[in-house]
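Readers of this paper often ask what the protein records in our data store actually look like. The remainder of this section carries one protein's record, kept here as part of the documentation.

:::
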Amino acid sequence: MKKAGRVKTWHADKGFGFIDVHADTKDVFFHVTALQTRSMTPTPGDRVNFELGKGKDGRIQALNVAIVGAPKPRSDASPWPVFAGLATLGLIVGGALVGYFPRQAGIVSILASIITFFAYADDKTRASRNAWRTPETTLHLLALCGGSPGALAAQHLLRHKNRKREFYS
């Protein structure tokens, strides 16, 4: 049965917190693994929905904790954008091999896509470490200079810059 409450405390360094359930007198423990989505960190005062259950130690705890207003976890990762990027790259390279384009166009397209993919991967790594980021204009420029197949692949395989409107391909 679903219950509702508010996050009373959250210890990010330890990965657990407590939920204040107004009907009950005792706060309910919840672990980071019980969160349905980890895109939002729980903060005291957040409204949550959850189910009561027993943990590994046999004590009552909150399971399937959903922060009200948090985005739903995506499970519909479509392979089509990656396929479209690879098909575009294949057409450019194939056209260069057959003679429709200069061979240098195929080589430049492959190199630009690889460089762009690794630039996205590096930016994602830096974002997770709160380090200095690659400017968005640089990522746009790399995609514009022939790296758009690599940018498409990175956006969908690495799930980086795929929610920002400016990066929709």
Summary: The longest helix spans residues 103-128. The chain has a mean pLDDT of 82. DSSP finds three helices and five strands in the chain. Residues 141 and 147 are 9 Å apart (CA to CA).
